[in-house]
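Margin note from the TA: students keep mixing up input and output lines. Inputs are the sequences; the output is the structure of the whole complex. Example:
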Amino acid sequence: MERSQDYFNLSVTDFLKKLSSESPTPGGGSAAAVAGAMGAALVSMVCNLSLGKEKYLEHENLIKTSLEKANLLLENLLQCARDDVNAYNEVMNAFKLPKDSTPDKNLKIENACKNAIIPPENTIKNCEEIIKLAKNLFGKSNKNASSDLNCAQVLAEAGIKSALENVKINLNFIGDENYIKQKNLWLENF
Amino acid sequence: MERSQDYFNLSVTDFLKKLSSESPTPGGGSAAAVAGAMGAALVSMVCNLSLGKEKYLEHENLIKTSLEKANLLLENLLQCARDDVNAYNEVMNAFKLPKDSTPDKNLKIENACKNAIIPPENTIKNCEEIIKLAKNLFGKSNKNASSDLNCAQVLAEAGIKSALENVKINLNFIGDENYIKQKNLWLENF
């Protein structure tokens, strides 16, 4: 199996080439997490452009804690991008199992798909936190970077929407009715 | 001035770190273009995963031309990301001009802001093309990658929304009423 970590050590240009290639990984799930990571990075940037500025001194605590949180969310989302590659590779491995020699092939596919739902779910959770951070910083951070705060929100929302697509497509290969019911209930929140 | 090209030769991880730093470039404008570029890359991936497959042979021409277009849009958007860095650096240079020694400082700021509107406008145009490509491919390309086609659209939409933020913030520093009127008319399309 290819080592997923390498994709995020690639240059941005080469990562995009790899994303566009016929290899299914990295795919939409990783792109979702990278979009969210860009949102987190922009929240951090706005905090960095506000820290120590007299105008925003009264919000210094909010800015500092937001910066710490955004940096952590960025790391989390990079991990989601890596996890998505690994989990989707396992899905493909399960699909490639020989039909006859593996009586439990369907169960292996189902389990791999359940595991592949975890990274996009984590992407969604982290992106929701970015939106909260950005909303709290409006009017309390460098106003020259207010467009970056808006961009952060837009990118985190795109991370959520793209990750949801990846949750839904994996549900198609799962027969476990209780699991499906629970996930459909969760999906109703969006 | 820092060479903007270098940002996209950085690894994804390092690009995100640079995006999060207190340096205003790369900022939201570049992130918008990268989001769009990920959308273009996913359209290319879906085409690559469909080409030569018997099921989609009747759509081979559409898939081939879509692939060519998506690859071009990806390149265009990477260029938008680079151009955005350069244009925004010029805006900052204009703001840094000494007040007294430069009687035309305001005009220089205004011109730099007008130039800084061009890259996000181009990001928007290219992202609109990605959405058209993705919409046309639904039902005519590898259905296992349909979630990637949805992600492509979501990311291109995020590219448009984020780029719009960058158009709007630059308009704040422009006094030319005719120019503003024309841009506001254009903004009404979104």
